[in-house]
Design brief:
Length: 234
């Protein structure tokens, strides 16, 4: 275990957490000390370097750190947006969770979110829908218009030679995105997942389970915040 961890440099904490010799408890302590510093805006260029590393293991670790730090600092902006195009689903999901927590929204972020809504990874798609559910009305309406124009839709790999097949793929992808936003809209209006699911057969059960769990946790948090507090005993 690290001793006097607050006195250990950020460079050392990053290196120690990445070492194969570091046991899980040591890595956990190192990462949470890093998260505390990054939340406070300390040594953020080192986090950016980790996010832009050529090592997938380093970027995956950075994804965890950025999700937990979730503080909007200008120095992180470019690297966070870059995560939306990362080859690792962990990083793309971290991008969505970061902008959800920080409530950042502008034209660049909207375009990146649109890509994540079209993502073939189910967790990235789920968190994109969760972002839409929690988005302010103005941002959500703007985003729906943006997605309807085809923003965020990239060509399949490999690209089909037949133009008709490409058009079919594009139409199906746009329908899938529209369906995701329709789900978000219906949740925002207060419909239950059970009722929405009964009318939409195309979605994977993973998505419905994730939405149900999220809404259940949100309801529990609201119930806890609104519960009357017991008077202190003295």
């Amino acid at each position: 275990m690290l001793s006097a961890i607050s006195g250990v440099s950020t460079v050392e904490l990053i290196a120690q957490g990445a070492s194969p010799a570091c046991d899980p408890d040591c890595r956990y302590e190192a990462d949470w000390e890093l998260i505390k510093r990054f939340r406070a805006g300390i040594d953020l260029p080192l986090l950016v370097a980790l996010m832009q590393s050529g090592s997938s293991a380093a970027r995956s670790r950075a994804a965890f750190l950025i999700e937990e730090a979730a503080t909007a600092h200008e120095v992180l902006y470019e690297a966070v947006v870059g995560f939306a195009d990362d080859g690792l689903a962990d990083c793309r999901r971290a991008f969505v969770k970061f902008v959800t927590e920080t409530r950042l929204y502008d034209a660049t972020i909207a375009d990146a979110l649109a890509k994540c809504l079209h993502d073939t990874d189910q967790t990235v798609r789920l968190f994109s829908i969760l972002w839409a559910i929690g988005a302010p009305t103005a941002s959500f309406d703007h985003f729906c218009t943006l997605v309807a124009t085809g923003t965020g839709l990239s060509e399949p790999t490999p690209r089909p030679f037949d133009r008709q097949l490409l058009d079919i793929w594009r139409a199906e992808s746009l329908q899938r995105a529209a369906r995701a936003l329709a789900i978000a809209r219906r949740v925002k209006s207060g419909e239950s997942i059970r009722d929405i699911r009964a009318t939409i057969a195309e979605e994977d059960s993973f998505l419905w389970f994730g939405l149900e769990r999220f809404l259940h946790l949100r309801q529990d948090r609201r119930r806890t915040r609104s519960a009357p507090q017991s008077p202190a005993k003295g």
